[in-house]
Amino acid sequence: MRIILCGFGVVAQSLIKLFESREEELYSKYGLKPRVLAVFDSKGSAIDQSGLNLEKLIQVKEKFGTVKNYSEKNNSMKGNEILKNVEADVLIETTASNYKDAEPGMTHITTAMKKGMHVISVNKGPLALAFPSLMELATYNQVMFKFSGTVGGGTPILDYAKNSLRGEKITSFAGILNGTTNYILSNMATGLSFDDALKDAQDRGYVEADESLDLDGLDAAAKLVILANWIMGMKVTMPDIKCVGIRKVTIEDIRKAETNNSVLKLIASCDKELMVSPKEVPKDDPLGVNGTLNAIAFTSEHSGTQTIIGKGAGGTETASSILRDLLDIRQEIAKN
Amino acid sequence: MRIILCGFGVVAQSLIKLFESREEELYSKYGLKPRVLAVFDSKGSAIDQSGLNLEKLIQVKEKFGTVKNYSEKNNSMKGNEILKNVEADVLIETTASNYKDAEPGMTHITTAMKKGMHVISVNKGPLALAFPSLMELATYNQVMFKFSGTVGGGTPILDYAKNSLRGEKITSFAGILNGTTNYILSNMATGLSFDDALKDAQDRGYVEADESLDLDGLDAAAKLVILANWIMGMKVTMPDIKCVGIRKVTIEDIRKAETNNSVLKLIASCDKELMVSPKEVPKDDPLGVNGTLNAIAFTSEHSGTQTIIGKGAGGTETASSILRDLLDIRQEIAKN
After folding, report:
1. In this protein, which residues make up the domain named Homoserine dehydrogenase catalytic (chains A, B) (predicted)?
2. Which chain A residues have any C-beta within 8 angstroms of a chain B C-beta?
3. ipTM score assigned to the predicted complex
4. Which of A94, A99, A293, A306 is 20 to 30 Å apart from B321, CA to CA?
C-alpha cells in the first residue's frame, strides 16, 4: 500500500516505528505491506517513489529535526505539490489541528480525495469545521475516509459506538474527551490552584502549544462534532457546539462539587443539545476518572449505559489507531 | 429467519418483546423477519411451524407460568424432540447455566449444530465446560456459533475486544464479571456484614437460585473461560481456572483495603494464569466501580489499557445482545 504521510510529529514517528517493528506480522497476518513514498514536515520533505527507508527516516528526523535532510534532492516540495505529483493509495494526515481554517490539513485531505486517494486523518481540524462536506466529498470520489485516532487516541471509541453497538440506537452520550483538562481538574481537586495545576500540566508536556485548544474546550468540542456526526448522524460543525472551557473554574467550584460527593469534569455531551462545559459528576460514576484519562458513556435504547475509559492520547496509542484504519482500508480494497 | 427458542425466562421473554416492539425497524433496516417456530420451558412447549403469535405467547406465559397452554396440541414435546422434528435456521439457547454437566443446554446446542442450525447461546454452561470442542463442532458443521450475551449482558465486551481492537494484541485483562458479588462487596464497604449484604442482594433478586454460582465465583469463572478462549485464543475450560469466591471475605479485609485507599472486588483475571479471586483495586482505578456494574480492563500491546463498564445483566440488555448476534447471522447468510 503506497502511503503519503503529512506531518511528522510524535504520532507519525510512532506510526513509522510500528510499521518497522510489526513489518512481518502486518504482512503475514493482514497482507499489509505499507510503502511510505513521501513524508513532509514544516521544514521540508523526503520522497522516494519506490519507498522510503523507514529506519533512516527516523534517524534523520532525530538528528536534524526535519525529514528534509533525508536526501539531497526533492526536499523543498510543499505538501500540496507532493500530493499532486506522487501517486499513492492513502494519505495519512497528521498535521496539527486548528479550528480557524483547518489548514493545511483541509487542503491536504480535499486534494487527496479529489485524486482518488483514501484518507486517514488524526487531524481533527478539518472534521470539526467541515465533517458533513468532507464525507460528501469522500463519497463523491468513492474513497474511504477514516479518523479513528481523532477521538480517544488509541481507545476505539468511534468504532465501539458504531460497530459493537450495531443494531442498537444510542440516544445520548457524555464524556471527558480531553485528558489535559481532566489532569488539571483532578489536581485542583487535591488542592492546587488553577495556575499551579496548569503549570504542572505544561511542565509535563500535556498542554497544546496553543493552550486555548485545551483550556477553552475547543479540542473537546471538535471531538464532540466528530461523535455527533459519526455516531448520531447529525450534520453539525464547531459553531453548533455551546462551549465553555475551564479557565473560570475556581477552587470554590471544586469544593462545592466535593460537598456534593462529586468531582468537577469538563463534560462534552450530546443530549438535547451539544455542549462542552464543566459539570459535577458523582464520585462513584464511571465517568469520575482522574488523571489524563478520557471516558465516555453511551446511553442506548435497550443496552443501558456503557462507559469506555482509556488514554485519550499518546504517540503509540494514536498510531495504533491509524494502523487499524489502514487495515480496514486494506481489507475493503481486498474485497473489490 | 426461523427460530427455535430454548427456555422462556426473563431474557427470552424480553427478546420476544423486542421482536414485537422493533418488528418494523428490524425488517426495514436489517431485513430481519424473525419467525419463532417453537418455544419450550421446563413445563412444556408451544409450536407452530408457520410462526407463533408473539403477543399470545407472552400472554400465555404470564397467565399460566408456562407456554404449554399456548395451544391444545403439541405441548408435551421435549426440547430435543423439538430440535429434531422442527426445521429452523437458528437455535437460541437461554436455559439456566449449570457447571456440572451443562445440561440441558449442551444437548440442545450440539443437537442443533449437528442438524446444521446456527446457534446463539446466552447459557454459559456449555461454553464453560466445552468451549474448544463446541467451536470445533460448529466449524465442522459449518454453522455460526454466537454468544455475545454470555459476558457483560448487553455490554458488548466480547465484540469490543475482538473487533474494535482488531490489529491489536491484547496481552492481559482483568475485570469484575459478576454484578451480584460486586453489589455485595460494595455494600460491605459501607459497613454491612456479609450475611446482611447477601440478604439484601437476595431480596432484590440479584442472587442466582443456586447462590454458589455467584458467591463461589463460578459465574465469573465461566465468563473468564469464554473470554480466554475467544479473545486470547486459549483452549481452556472451567477446571483450568483457579477460583476463590467471596464467602470468606470479612469486614477486616474490607477495612484493610480501605486503609490502602482501595476497594475489594472479585476480580477475574487472565495474565500469567487464569484466576477468579477477591483483590484490592485502587479506589480511583476505572475497575473500582460499585453497585451491580461489571467492568473489564483490557491491556493491549500498543493501545494501552482500556476499560469498559456497563450493566452485566438485565433481561432487555441481554436480549439486545441476542438480537445483535441474530443480525450478524442474518448479515452473514445474506453474503452467501
Report:
1. 156-327
2. 18, 30, 154-156, 159-160, 163-168, 284, 286, 289-291, 293, 295, 300, 302-311, 314, 316-317, 319-321, 323-324, 327
3. 0.91
4. A293
